[in-house]
Fold DegT/DnrJ/EryC1/StrS family aminotransferase.
Amino acid sequence: MLPYGRQSIIESDIEAVVEVLRGDWLTTGPAVRLFEDELAQWTGGVPCVSVTSGTAALHVAYAAAGVGHGDEVITSPLTFVATAATAVLGGARVAFADVQPDTGNIDPDSAAALVTPRTRAITGVDYAGHPADYDELRTLADRAGAVLVADAAHSIGASYKERPVGSVADLTTFSFFPTKTVTTAEGGAVAAADPAHLERATRFRNHGLVRDPAEQRDPGHGGWHQEVHEFGLNYRLPDVLCALGVSQLRRLERFRARRAALVARYNTLLADVPGLTLPAQRAYVTPSWHLYPVRVRDGRRREVYERMRAAGIGVQVNYIPAYWHPVFEDLGYRRGLCPRAEAYYAEELSLPLFADLTHDEQDRVVETLAGILG
Ligand SMILES: *Cc1c(COP(=O)(O)O)cnc(C)c1O
């Protein structure tokens, strides 16, 4: 089965990992800082904290933003459930804003209608790798006194109005799962411009431990003393995986360019296939495409999904609206809440897109799809 996404691992990635395995530090060592420093070169210099997954990154970001009981987080339902689940785990209620019908990104006007005095965070999701409308979301967040979060699990290396993703929101989260553009097997990171957010994120990923005597409430016990002021978890990304991350980041520009070229090729090859809507792109963004999301019109998405799969082409659907998950239904969320997100979901089909996808493979995807719809 041709997958919809997969990692690209070459000999230099393997060597980077093996070198760490031969050394002294499997975790909490120098590769962690090196990875975070290299990552910050992609966020316009905004410092980064590495964590064990994109989900952990969201959990850390909400903790750093102070999201807690009684707070509300506004986000898009057209995302992986983790964007909303981590906010709920932090004690917040999630308010789902509808999406723009073409990009699938959160619609700032829909988000504006959901702002209340309890709104603590507004989270944009850069669906498919196309940045959300951050100027509008920024205005909204500032007016609400909320923290602006970007779930950039799809969009590392993208830019919004010439500003790199990671430098646009207050807190930006990345995922390094193998299907994403850069991988550490499992992994993630949070970029935080505000030093207070950064400090809180750094502590949360390490049990909330405070090691600096100057920061401790009751120092002077001895060199071993450490304190917990706020609960945290162990979300530390080990050196073994950070080394892979460093090696992968050095290939990010090529990954981004290759994915962009494949997207352009899909756009050309699929332009005349009937019953398809191809992904939209705003003039003021440079996406870093993680997905190639087409929409299959005329109620044929399921049929096309099944026939593509039967032909050995691993298409995917991204995503079931988050509040359709029974866990949200049990909290009182109902279908129909975000009609544009539901309409997008009903037609969405992600075609294979990854750096090592060959033109032959891509041609087979196009021919199979055109054969079904033609
Ligand atoms: C992948 C993904 C996540 C979660 O990342 P993991 O590394 O799999 O935990 C969160 N949000 C979005 C939009 C994602 O695509």
